[in-house]
Amino acid sequence: MLARMIAALATGFAASTGHAAPYPEPIDLGHGVHVFVGAREEASRENGGHIANQGFIVAADGVIVIDSGLSTGFARHMLSVIRARTGKPVALVILTWPVDEAIFGAALFQERGAPVLAHEAAARLIAERCERCLAQRRAALGEELMAGTRVPRPDRVFRGSQTLSVAGRRLELIDEDGAAAPGSIAVWDPESGVLFAGGLASFGRIPETGNGTLDTWIKALGRLAALPARSVVPAHGATGDPAALGRFAAYLDALRGRTRQAYAAGMSLLEAPRRVVRMTDQHLREDGVSVVEAVEQVIGLRISRAEPPVVGRMKIGLLIRTRADATADQGEAQQHEAAHVPAVAAHRAPRSCNGRLKDMPSVIPLERT
Asked: Which of 104, 173, 219, 352 has the fewest CB atoms within 10 Å distance of its CB?
């Protein structure tokens, strides 16, 4: 019954959305900052898989790319847009988190001579999982759309928040590892007042929580909201302001608290979604989130917009990860290391397709500016 109800909701939701190719032109936020805003949809052939946000900064001596899109096709579009605006070289590509729609375009920039920077934990996850992810995307979106796309291997990795000077621009890399995902970071550009929040923020769309830690995530959003940003670029949804980060944190907090209560009370999978959605409804309405997305989030269902619902995780408890849970997963040694680590960078090691950790870049000290 629940599956039929959700399928009906999903059908209505899919019919109410639409996004036409080609890929969009970027929005100019001023001070050399440009942002591509993705469709508020699931990835499809119709929208070219462009469902997330990417940006680039035209700095004094070059261009800095923030996230690279889902495919080589989008990366080519991005590069052509950059070339139409400036003849300066792409100096660096920064990946804010290890998800398909952020990373798969990066290999094209590497082929054109631009280095790729990611958090050390993100680079590890990319090596472990992303060959499988790419194969799944090829199957879902088709060989034509994903032609030439391959998994990038970051040239440089780091950990620990730090200042980065590149192409004559001074940026702040904000390490929020484990919040939205392993290796999730934000990029703060004080010159423009633009904060690239990456996967740490999602405006108008329910975020993926399976790879994150809600306690850590909510605290991270509080720190980001304290920055004097005039514009915040989320991974998904339209650009917003710091207040939007607060509303998003309030949603996560309500989801965390109400789901814990429902789980502790032993509610059934039929009862818990209705109860939690009702209790968090004000946050959902503020961000324009559909009911079907809310139901998915609460019970861990992933719904294909073009096919019948596919049941994924069915335990509400899997949505609740505390810092203690994450630490237990990583081990005591890693917990100690996370408490205080120096900034690091790396050069790319030899590549392979097996994703083993031996292929990770070797860590060397990164010179602070």
From this structure: 352
Asked if residue 276 belongs to a domain, the reply is: no
Residue with tokens 């890929």: 23
Tokens coding 229: 């940003």
* pLDDT confidence of residue 276: 64
Cα(157)–Cα(175) distance, integer angstroms: 12
- Angstrom distance (rounded) from CA 255 to CA 366: 39
- To the nearest 5 percent, what fractions of the chain are helix, strand and coil? 40, 20, 40
What CATH code is carried by the domain that includes residue 162? 3.60.15.10
Residue with tokens 């304290």: 226
* pLDDT of residue 40 exceeding 60: yes
Structure tokens at 17: 């959305």
- When the pLDDT of each residue in the chain is averaged and rounded to a whole number, the result is 76
pLDDT of residue 300 exceeding 50, the answer is no
Q: Which residues, 6 or more positions from 93, have their beta carbon under 8 angstroms from its beta carbon?
A: 64, 65, 68, 106, 109, 110, 114, 115, 116, 117
Answer whether residue 290 is part of any domain.
no
Which residue from 198, 229, 192, 239 is spatially nearest to 57, judged by alpha carbons? 192
Number of domains the chain is built from: 1
pLDDT tens across 352-363, in order? 222 333 333 333
Question: Would you say residue 294 lies in a domain?
Answer: no
What residues pair up with 298 in beta bridges, in sequence order? none
Pairing of strands 162-166, 156-158: unpaired
- The rounded radius of gyration (Å) of the Cα atoms in the chain is 20
What is the residue-wise DSSP string for 229-267? -SEEEEEESS-B-HHHHHHHHHHHHHHHHHHHHHHHTT-
Q: pLDDT tens digits, residue range 118-165?
A: 999 999 999 999 999 999 999 999 999 999 999 999 999 999 999 999
H or E element: which one contains 193? none
CA distances from 246 to 54, 176, 240, 361 (A): 22, 16, 11, 36
| C-alpha span between 67 and 63 (Å, rounded) | 13
The reply to whether 256 falls in a domain is: no
**68-112, pLDDT tens digit by residue?**
999 999 999 999 999 999 999 999 999 999 999 999 999 999 999
Is residue 157 within 8 Å of residue 345, measured between CB atoms? yes
Residue whose structure tokens are 């484990």: 178
pTM metric for this prediction: 0.73
